[in-house]
Amino acid sequence: MDATPDTARAAPPHPRPAAEDLPGAVPHQRPAVTELRLSAFGAHRAAVFPLGPVVLFAGPSGSGKSQALAALEALARLGSGAPLERAFPDPRSRIPDRARADGQGRRGFRIGCTVDGPLGPVRLDLAVQAEPELRIAGERLSAGGRILLGTALRDPGRRTVQAAWLTGGSTGFTRAPLPDDRLGTALLPLRVAGATAGQRQVLAAAEQVVVALRSVFPCDPQPERMRAPVPQGEGRLLEDCANLADVLRRTRLECGTRHALLTGAARSACAGPVEGLGVRAGADGLVSALLERGPGRPATELGRLGSGELRFLAMALVLLTGPGVLAMDPAAELLSARQALTVLADGLDRCLDPRQSAELLRLALLSCARGHVRLVAAVGPQTAAAARRVPGVAVVDLEV
Hints:
This protein is α+β, with helices and mostly antiparallel strands. It is 29% helix and 28% strand. The chain has 11 helices and 17 strands. It has helices spanning 5-10, 65-79, 84-87, 184-191, 197-214, 223-226, 244-254, 256-269, 307-320, 354-368, 381-387; strands at residues 32-41, 44-50, 54-58, 107-116, 122-131, 135-143, 146-152, 160-168, 172-179, 216-218, 230-231, 276-281, 286-292, 300-301, 341-346, 373-378, 394-397. It has an 8-stranded antiparallel sheet, with helices on one face. Strands 10-15-16-3-17 form a 5-stranded parallel sheet, with helices on both faces. Helix 4 packs across helix 5 and helix 10 crosses helix 11 (381-387). It is elongated.
């Protein structure tokens, strides 16, 4: 008889298997998304995009650059436990062009990814119903050609999907309902006891996928929000980088080496002499960041910089730092040194001149060479043309 969810939760915990004890294991490999699949998503059909350490999407307006990044961002949010409505705030815009509704008026889209890590490649595929109601229609987690988790929408009248995950032994699979607005893979650690070899394989695969997805940081610096002084806080950079001054305060105090690298980057990409990146605290408790110009020269507050300079400094900071300095939910399953941060940037070169764009690519390659950071971004034609001549940068050319 299949175990119920309550029975599975009540079972005694089992020690997590070591990576080298699992089939096809590669010890010490950091989980990372290495492939994005857009089977039917917006302008994309049957599209497969390998994701290396530095990947730039290029193409004319309407070719689907932003949609590709939006799909990866949505998977990341689902992997962090977010509901469907947060991952897809405008689901109808993701329905493939010219898609027809079935006899019950249903339309949707399909996306997926592959995560490489200690288990080797693990695939996650997701079918989402966007009309008439937003819900998960099916999910599949697989490794080595074997399905570890499968879900299906059996009864449209219930807000659940029927799930089955590998148990092994005489039971084979455990079957139980899961919510139709959450990623089942992210819920498995709450449902699977880990008492059998099959369950431990399911948990290891789910953990690998969730760790990689939770390590994705979408970053879109907004210069108009970065100019004013900000309250002193915990120094974790927001996605819009509005609190850049407070994060620079923290890196100056705690991360001398990275702060020095950031200062060097600012020196090469900002106008005028740059001797350092300083911070000034006002009597009101607000913090301002500034460029130190050297002896006898007045400092320049970051609020007076151009939009390109502000966007450059924010993106450079993200590429040179790690999850501990970003406003993201860290993957507690692994030490930060065993994680690979994936920076997601739609319009990486927006407002930047060629010199600044080239410096960002240099910083990306510097950080990605250590295996701790990966970059997936959309860029304009000028940056794409220059990037094609840079070893280590992969440019994906899309067409309308």
